[in-house]
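DM from R.C. (forwarded with permission)

"hey, sorry to bug you on a friday — could you get me a structure for this? deadline for the figure draft is monday and I only need the backbone to look sensible"
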Amino acid sequence: MCQRRDQNFPLPDGDIDQGRWAIIAEHPIPGGRLDILIQNSVLQYQCIIENKIKAYEQPNQLNNYGEWLKNNTKDFANHALIFLTVHGNEAASANGHEFFRLSYRIDIPNWLDRAIEKGIDAPAVRELVVQYKYLVENM
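My reply, with the result:
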């Protein structure tokens, strides 16, 4: 989905089914706390998602996250920084670091639609995704 939105979005090298994916919420780093950190050491890939719904960017926030990504290239050669906001806002604190904008209004509902269309076997999970899509569209 991210690469459909922006063809420059860095994807992992190799089959995404390789290795083990770790998803860590509220991961502390010097100068902040990452909302969501996604890592796969086999694919040497990590992605930060900075989630902004009812909060404002802190001074130098995305800059600090970009620096942290840049300094962790020994084990994670490929990386991405996503700025997820209700409207897909531009970040003010990136200070030249590359980041990718996503929005709850457009991108997340489109992604959820694709998941629903592909089929979700468990009826309860499918209903949860449908309800979450409705919630997101009505933020």
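R.C.: lifesaver. The chain has a mean pLDDT of 93.
me: no worries. The chain is about 30% helix and 25% strand.
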